[in-house]
Backbone:
């Protein structure tokens, strides 16, 4: 939670907004439930938040030390969950929104982050050591295609988790998200681009 607070501040939020972000996560029923029922998601959440924080810091400072730190954090995040790859497009979107132009130093920092991230990923996952060239694609294909077929109760019917209707995730998100958070997120999205 402290790291989320730091990430929000790094992204330009006020202290009050950063505290609201922390409270929103801490009080989110799904987050609390996952921390009890699916605790492996907590290290992944921490690692992805750490990677995002480190990437934003590297974009801000453009120092070699911070780019290397961002790469190490990204590599660490990759060892926790395959969806930590989404930190790259999120960081890219952040750069596109906050930068008027892409400077040479930013490109160098980006490639440094990616290179160190790849090295850290392999270094932190001993299973990859004997043959990283073959093992990395194999790991990503297995992890990204793994489907857990546990039963899911949805709209009064039981489905296999890999056979839920296309609208399941949207309905599940809207049904489990507190209305206040949905309203505040809508206000936040609507305010993007408005003068401060």
Residues:
């Amino acid at each position: 939670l402290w790291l989320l607070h730091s990430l929000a501040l790094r992204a330009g939020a006020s202290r009050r907004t950063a505290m609201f972000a922390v409270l929103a996560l801490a009080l989110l029923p799904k987050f609390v439930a996952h921390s009890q029922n699916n605790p492996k998601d907590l290290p992944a959440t921490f690692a992805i938040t750490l990677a995002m924080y480190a990437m934003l810091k590297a974009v801000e400072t453009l120092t070699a030390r911070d780019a290397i730190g961002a790469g190490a954090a990204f590599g660490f995040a990759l060892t926790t969950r395959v969806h930590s790859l989404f930190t790259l497009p999120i960081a890219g979107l952040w750069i596109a929104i906050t930068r008027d132009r892409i400077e040479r130093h930013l490109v160098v920092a980006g490639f440094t982050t990616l290179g160190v991230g790849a090295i850290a990923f392999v270094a932190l996952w001993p299973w990859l050591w004997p043959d990283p060239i073959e093992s990395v694609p194999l790991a990503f294909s297995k992890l990204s295609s793994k489907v857990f077929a546990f039963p899911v109760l949805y709209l009064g019917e039981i489905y296999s988790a890999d056979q839920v209707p296309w609208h399941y995730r949207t309905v599940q998100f809207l049904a489990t998200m507190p209305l206040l958070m949905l309203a505040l997120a809508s206000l936040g999205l609507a305010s993007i681009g408005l003068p401060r």
Remarks:
- The longest strand covers residues 151-154.
- Residues 95 and 101 are 9 Å apart (CA to CA).
